[in-house]
Amino acid sequence: MYIKRINKAVITVTCLLISICPIINQAQEHPSLILTKAGVEKIRAELGSIPLFDASLKKIKEEVDAEMALGIDTPIPKDYSGGYTHARHKRNMIVMQQAGVLYQILDDEKYAKYVKDMLMQYEGMYKTLPLHPKTRSYARGKLFWQCLNDSNWLVYVSQAYDCIFNYLSKAERKKLEQNLFRPFADHISVDSPQFYQRVHNHSTWGNAAVGMIGLVMNDKELIDRALYGIKGVNLDKNAKDDDGGFLNKEGKAGFLANIEEPFSPDGYYNEGPYYQRYAMYPFLIFAEGLHNVKPELKIFEYKDGVLLKSINALLNLSDADGDFFPLNDGQKGMSYYNDALVTAVDISYYFGNQDPGLLNIAAKQNKVLLDDSGLAVALGIKNGKAKPFDKKSINLSDGPDGKQGGVGILRSDDLELVFKYSAQGSSHGHYDKLSYSFYENGNEVLQDYGLARFVNIEQKGGGNYLKENKTWAKQTIAHNTLVQNGKSHYQGKYDIGSKHHPDLYVFDDSNVNIQIVSAKENNAYPGTEMHRTMAIIKEEGFEKPFLLDIFKVKSDSTNQYDLPFYFMGQVLKTNFEYEVPGTLEPLGIDNGYQHLWSEGCGSTTAENTKLSWLEKGRFYTLTSATSKDDELRFVRIGANDPEFNLRREAGFLIRRKDAKNTLFVSVIEAHGSYSPVTESAVNSNSNVALLKVVLDTIDYTAISITTIKGDTKLFIIANTNASKEAKHTLNINEKNYTWMGCSYYN
Q1: pLDDT at residue 76 above 80?
Q2: pLDDT tens across 430-488, in order?
Q3: Known catalytic residue: 489?
């Protein structure tokens, strides 16, 4: 009897809470997430006088009107990424969000009715919807094959619900919240803690989804769950996701933890720019909602304003064309023209310090958000406030405290060096410490392969990651860095890689004529220390700045070292002879080598090895200081790839056998041009006559570079003391050199 009374009391209290819920909701102003009541009034007052905003509004109105004319389709889920049901539900979420915004701005009820009708269809479907039939994901959704996409849906749809909230009756809101929104939020959180309760771009989407619908519903429990994670949940600390990353090794979770942990103080996101771009939308759109509804959190000031800092970092992680550097898992061609970056640029401008450089990028994007921030950007452009976004050399630290390596970018003229010495980067990280890629005016000269995936192309593995992402793209040999004994860094194991990172030795961009980045890695191979120094040097007599690469290796054992260069273009000339096999064979059997065809093999015949190639009308030359026993190989990606999942691109590899301590030194020149119209070649030959190691000790390495005109320059790096205040004196060939700081060049 006592238990029954308690249950009846609980039921009574529950009913009371439900009955007063609409009253609580009614007290909160709507819209309040990305749009505000005051903002809507201002937008309406400015319509017709702000070209970029008006054009953005016109385009979205045309798209939504076209979708509305087709009718509403909410099919039963069955497909992976790229399939019809997946694409339809993804399109529905975007159109609902857009239609909600159109209702607010244009005050046309047809858009509110459209959103309402579609939501009611989803409500009717969702309350009996089972888990998605595709079972590949570690956390299955209901509308989509993974909870990640379900979270995408709720992030967008919560905005639509906010926009039509006052259009709906109390009964309609109650029906949607009880049968759709609350169960939806519960499924991606308390029902899927392995997805939600972690620090990862997946959980960021989940946190934002739960939090945003919580803000609209004025549901404190959901808001707290979004900010701090699920209370009382303890996951297996050794459990992993589909990509091999730990689900919750450190026990941290929630939106605030997802700001604290992945971002460095400089705003670098540990998974790399491709996933930072993907995560920035939920980070910023939820932050905007929190700012509007819960300003006391001061979310844009959290962790010293790192969310706004991160946008500047992300924009600097793009090439001259705006394409993001494909560090870790990254699809080439993803750029700041993506809608997520429209959101990032607009919100950064509005909530930040109104950087006029952001207006320049917004103008290139040629669209703005249809909200308060988009209005501010459009007005800024209209009023002529835009200035070029000046991308300079920059060093971005990694890790929550900025002490877990980083990424150094050196820019000189049209050249960009991207030097990766970062931490593992969660489950999307690759095993390529001290690797680099090199660009000229947005074109790849030496490439980072990026990911092995055809995103949202169903014919290729359901649009998901391909097995070659693990067997090739993540492996060390797929990158421009050193491989020891044919094994990947950290044995290619996340458990090991996540514990270590390289350390910055020096980053110095203070002299525009010689910029340097240098880092050390002592854990990739036990007993082996790797130290790579890279410099972009402007020198008279060279058409363009040249890249100097010094890779110093110290080991306790004798090893085989491979140093690949994945050049983009057509081979023109070499200074060594090589044999091309009649039958192609893979270079190895595992660790990525099984995917490399050996297309040619030769050996050194001179003090230097030279390779020249042509790409997109530009000439490039690699000059390496090599030993007589070095093996030289041309390789091509694509072996053991019967489904043609990998791009058939070329590489050049220097192999040094039976070496303990060794030094690899190279210079890469960009020079000349070729016009297929005039059929003329200009400055097609290298300017380097001799590259020589004149000294290599524990403390110092000295390299001389002699041009074809006989001019010789000397570069010295102090290997053990990087202090700017340190004074060095060194005798080389009976000549004394004295300098301050870690490097000398003259």
Answers
A1: yes
A2: 999 999 999 999 999 999 999 999 999 999 999 999 999 999 999 999 999 999 999 99
A3: no
Judged against a pLDDT cut of 50, whether residue 162 lies above it is answered with yes
Mean pLDDT, the chain, whole residue set: 94
Torsion of CA 716, 719, 721, 726, to 10 degrees: -10
Q: How far apart are CA 245 and CA 425, in angstroms?
A: 10
Q: What are phi and psi of 178, to 5 degrees?
A: -75, -35
For the cut 70, the answer to whether the pLDDT of residue 286 exceeds it is: yes
Q: Which residue has the tokens 């889920």?
A: 77
Q: Which residue is it, tokens 């000790």?
A: 697
Q: How many CB atoms lie within 10 A of CB 642?
A: 5
Tokens of 126: 């969702």
Task: Give the whole-angstrom CA distance, residue 107 versus residue 103.
Answer: 5
Tell me the per-residue pLDDT of 194-232, one tens digit each, with 9 for 90 and over: 999 999 999 999 999 999 999 999 999 999 999 999 998
The CA distance from 138 to 142, in Å, is: 13
pLDDT at position 232 is 87
Comparing CA positions, the residue from 27, 20, 19 lying closest to residue 293 is 27
Contact (CB, 8 A) for 276 and 314: yes
* DSSP-assigned states of every residue in 642-707: TT--S---EEEEEEEEEESSEEEEEEEEEE-EEETTTTEEES-S-SEEEEEEEEE-SSEEEEEEEE
The Cα–Cα gap between 302 and 257 comes to 11
DSSP 338-367: SHHHHHHHHHHHHHTT--HHHHHHHHHHT-
Per-residue confidence (pLDDT) for residue 21, from 0 to 100: 39
Cα separations in angstroms, 344 against 329, 373, 376, 377, 633? 21, 10, 13, 12, 44
Cβ pair 368, 344 in contact under 8 A: no
Taking residues 627-634, report their average pLDDT.
95
Contact partners, residue 134, CB within 8 Å, separation at least 6:
78, 79, 80, 140, 145, 462
What pLDDT does residue 2 have? 29
8 A C-beta contact, residue 632 and residue 512 = no
Sheet containing 712-718: order of strands: 688-696, 700-707, 712-718, 743-745
Q: Examine the residue annotation and report whether 500 is marked as an active-site residue of this protein.
A: no
- Within 8 A by CB and 6+ apart from 383, the residues are none
Catalytic site residue from 428, 430, 489, 531: 428
Q: Whole-angstrom Cα distance, residue 492 to residue 490?
A: 5
CA 411 to chain centre: 19
- Hey, what are 328's tokens? 């870790």
Q: 446 and 566 in contact (C-beta within 8 Å)?
A: yes
Residue 534 · residue 518 · CB < 8 Å: yes
Residues 6+ apart with CB under 8 A from 441: 320, 414
Convert the pLDDT of each residue in 34-43 to its tens digit.
999 999 999 9
Q: How confident is the model at residue 27 (pLDDT cuts 50, 70, 90)?
A: low
In the predicted model, what is the mean pLDDT of residues 115-135? 97
Mean pLDDT of 484-511: 97
Per residue in 386-409, pLDDT tens?
Answer: 999 999 999 999 999 999 999 999
Q: How many residues does the chain have?
A: 746
Among 80, 114, 275, 745, the active-site one is: 275
Buried b (16+ CB within 10 A) or exposed e, 484-496: bebbbbbebebeb
What kind and span of H or E run contains 504? strand 503-508
Q: Considering the entire predicted model, what is its pTM? A: 0.91
For 182, other C-beta atoms within 10 Å of its C-beta total 17
- Angle (CA) 85-140-495 rounded to 5° is 130
Beta strands in 68-223 (DSSP E): none
Question: Is there a cis peptide before residue 31, judged by omega within 30 degrees of 0?
Answer: yes
